[in-house]
Amino acid sequence: MTILLCFCYSAHTQDGSGKAMQSKDDKAKIQFNGLGRAILSQTGIDGNILDADSSTIENITDGEFLLDLIVNASPNKTTEVQSIIRLRNEFGGFFGAGMALEVRELWLRGVIADVLKYRVGDMDLAMTPYTLFLPDEEGMVNEPAVFAPQRDVIHYEQFYTDDNTRRMQGGKLDFGLNFAQVIEDLDISAFVARIRGTDFFITPTRLVAGGEFDFSTVTFNDSLGMKANVGLNVIHTYDDLQSGNANTGIRNTVSSVDFDITLLDKKNISFHIVGETGMSNLETAERVENDTGDKENNITSEEDDTFLDVGIQVELKKQNLMLSASFIDIGPDFFSVGAQSKRIEYNGEKTFYNRIGTNRMLRRPTLFDLNRDRGLYTFRISDMLMGYDPRYANAMPYGDATPNRQGVKVGLVCGKIEDKINATVNAAFLQELRGQGTLQLKNFTLLRAAANFNIHKFISYKNKLRLTLGMQVESTSREGQEIEQVDLNSNLIEVGLEAELFSKFELLLGAKLFSAEGTEYIPSIQSFNDIQDFPSRFVADDKETLIGAGFKYEFKKDTYITLQYNTLILEKETDPLNDYDLNQFYVLYTMKF
Angle at Cα 484 formed by Cα 282 and Cα 535, nearest 5°? Predict the structure, then answer.
């Protein structure tokens, strides 16, 4: 069982300028806002696996108290600086014991000559899904609102945004131009950031630089509404072998062209050709000594590959309906560190019950952990394809930029969030381009669907009454001899209810039902993205049931209290002696100003 008490005081976004607590004087140059949180957690475990295990503590209590103080200053009309100072104290640390003080964020931005925008320090960056992008985490499709508070804490701590940006530290320049003919506007941006520092021994400094060149055309045909938006993108990640004593490093360059060509844009319908295509280059560099005794970089290996993602979009405006279909071809050796690095480190150490059982086996992450364990999440960029759990995502574990895939994707979006019903459906039918460990190819099928029903608009109920549904069905198969065969199937169903019993007081209910069954092979990846080995066959026979229930009272916008209980039931069909349950109870109070 877990008890969680959380107090939050927050501004708008971590990366934006603060507007709270302004002086009545419009010329005030310093503003204050912030976020505070207090967590008291008691986590419990039970089940068959503990019957012969006397070393695992069945209840763990911990927590933290923290305050993020945001100070935003504008020394003049063209300059703005902001810092977030964090005060944190672990639960049980009285009279300042265990207290830590750190700078969570610091940046400066401004405008030069009303033309050139600049920013230095911490920044959130995103380009395209194949160049610089942070794909969403697994384990959710249309997550019930009852599970949202703890995921929001994770997103805040890891600097995740709705725009799939990556948190970096460096400098950025932006400027734009407007034209009268052919090209309507032109936007150019460039950045450089350090994503890893040297340890002055074997780890070199790692830098990433990139830029975008985006332009929009004027409307070529007024009767049809023909126009185009085109972007040129490049990102280069490299290790500085002059820093420290490192002898090897990588250079990864990805360049692409993305486009949205409007062929028809009328009152009731629009038709677009959209997509992105480009290539990647991965080099392994080694620092060697030349004939004169100087150190220089020597390329020891190099891989190039391409990608193509092109399709159509049809929007039926009157019906609030969007249809899409695309063809993808992502090369086996396509590698983009900025787009393929995941949010979840499945090999990371879990905060709660990392090892359990008499043999102290490493516990595999569950939906319970993915929803609440900050120890599994990261915003850092990896120099190789990160590990993944094929039960939760096997068709596209690295998002759109997953390499070695070819096939068709289709999608449908119907309605808006405020409508009586809104829904999205996405499907992908993919195949490997190159076999892994065999000439046989894997086939993947992925179906994701989500729907929201605003029931109160059907029955004229004055308060909110919303039903949310989510579903993911995924299958992987491979023919061949018995040792080559793969057959893995997984299903995830989400059901949520938000019922406003009276003004600002809600009942929250939610459940996730997950099952995975079958076999698969997961390659072991070594540095620089090479397959090192194929461990023993991965076998899945799990069923997970995650249930949440609670109440939420909203005092005013962004100020509320919620009381909740969550429980996970894990069942192993072929190994029932290792079944277990995880339980959680928490209270969370949040206030933003």
Answer: 60
